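Budget justification aside, the reviewers requested a transparent look at the raw inputs and outputs of the sequence design task funded under Objective 1. We therefore reproduce one unedited record. The lines immediately below are the structure tokens for a 310-residue chain.
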């Protein structure tokens, strides 16, 4: 397996009314670095993409990425560049990006140009920005240059071009402790197509579930797997400690208790898919009694406020 550290630059319409539905951003540059399983650099990829959709450079984009539309005319159309990129990646690439957006935008561009999907469902990848925060106990997402300075990595090429940002992301990935590399993220541009292909992943200290799509949110909230609170470590049923509740209708949470492993918080987030369907991301994590009791109080307070408002 090779790590493919990917970064994209993209352009957009200069006017909101000119945005094409389903294609808000057009990729104008693909940069990537290939790392071996030992995280050592193997090879590089850097290509400009000739625009086919948004042929005027957005003013802010041009200043940010230091590219002009005239330069992009020397590139190849997206289908050609993507075919070369795919061949360069090789078999079974494991993608790594700075932040969660690049794989989604890559697949949006692929769909627009009617290219075969990268996968039939969610794609596991490493969000190096998130892993950097976890590894060094930083409470919020930071930009790429902050991480480079934090790790005292030499800034030997300019930022804000696809290859240079991929290169710096790869340098950060090289230095991350091994124990955070198991915390993969999932790009859900393509959701699990059915119940059999839903995602169930156990990490060091929590569990993640990604559902298939549902036509209506009500069907998601009555699905047995979505609302299951069995212990993710032993698989046994748990007892209710704090019933399901919500404060904003976007996510629901509860606390249950496993005889063997203790108090477990379950959180169900409702999200919109590309086609408007609803899907669910559920996380479960063991918590202490103080945290559980604070959630119990929060539920009671929420119910009380709801009664008063009604």
């Amino acid at each position: 397996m090779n790590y493919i550290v990917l970064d994209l630059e993209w352009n957009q319409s200069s006017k909101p009314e000119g945005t094409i539905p389903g294609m808000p951003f057009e990729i104008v540059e693909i940069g990537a670095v290939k790392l071996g399983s030992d995280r050592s650099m193997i090879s590089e990829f850097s290509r400009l993409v000739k625009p086919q959709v948004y042929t005027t450079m957005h003013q802010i984009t041009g200043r940010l990425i230091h590219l002009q539309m005239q330069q992009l005319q020397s590139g190849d159309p997206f289908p050609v560049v993507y075919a070369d990129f795919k061949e360069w990646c090789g078999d079974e690439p494991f993608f790594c990006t700075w932040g969660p957006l690049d794989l989604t935008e890559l697949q949006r561009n692929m769909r627009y140009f009617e290219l075969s999907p990268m996968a039939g469902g969610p794609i596991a990848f490493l969000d190096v920005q998130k892993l950097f925060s976890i590894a060094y106990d930083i409470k919020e997402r930071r930009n790429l240059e902050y991480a480079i300075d934090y790790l005292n990595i030499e800034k030997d090429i300019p930022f804000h071009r696809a290859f240079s940002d991929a290169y710096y992301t790869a340098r950060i990935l090289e230095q991350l402790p091994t124990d955070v590399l198991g915390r993969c993220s999932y790009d859900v541009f393509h959701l699990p197509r059915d119940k059999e292909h839903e995602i169930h992943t156990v990490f060091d200290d929590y569990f993640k579930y990604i559902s298939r799509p549902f036509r209506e949110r009500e069907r998601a909230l009555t699905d047995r797997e979505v609302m299951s609170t069995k212990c993710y470590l032993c698989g046994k049923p748990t007892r209710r400690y704090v019933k399901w509740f919500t404060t904003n209708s976007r996510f629901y949470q509860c606390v249950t208790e496993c005889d063997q492993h203790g108090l477990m918080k379950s959180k169900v987030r409702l999200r919109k898919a590309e086609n408007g369907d609803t899907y669910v991301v559920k996380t479960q994590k063991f918590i202490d009694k103080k945290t559980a009791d604070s959630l119990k109080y929060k539920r009671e307070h929420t119910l009380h406020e709801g009664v008063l408002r009604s």
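Residues 289-309 form the longest helix (21 residues). The longest strand covers residues 262-272. Computational costs for records of this kind are itemized in the attached budget.
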